[in-house]
Amino acid sequence: MEDKIHRCQYRVLYGDTxxxxxxxxxxxxxxxxxxxxxxxxxxxxxxxxxxxLGLLFPVIECYTRFKAxxxxxxxxxxxxxxxxxxxxxxxxxxxxxxxxDATGRxxxxxxxxxxxxxxxRKGKLTPLPTDIISRLQALLPDNT
Length: 144
Description:
- By secondary structure, the protein is of the alpha+beta class.
- It has a single domain (2-143), classed as Thiol Ester Dehydrase, Chain A (Roll), CATH 3.10.129.
- The chain has helices spanning 27-43, 47-52, 130-137; strands at residues 6-11, 55-56, 59-66, 75-85, 89-99, 106-117, 119-120.
- The relative contact order is 0.22.
């Protein structure tokens, strides 16, 4: 994984947009989820596998900084990176980009982060299993 950044693409649907014909702000959290889910599936395990262990991985904090609007039918690039890992929490960072067809340059549309906690089905903080921790550690910058 080049520079430990996972990249995937998503085509903006008409239903993602608002009355101003731009992507509705809350949908960027969905885009973050798409990136995070694909990173996890490709390099760690699926969320289904985490749930089968009796664990949930809810968002406990999120932040988004908007730079430029995405619009219907844009092909966006979702960059996801694991930035922080603790025994019961982790933090992912994201960049949402759009490639300019004419120049080939990528324009930053939004950036942000989400922090997640590992909890059991009763809502109690629970350490992540060691095998998942070790796979996640491999995704950290400089493997720290």
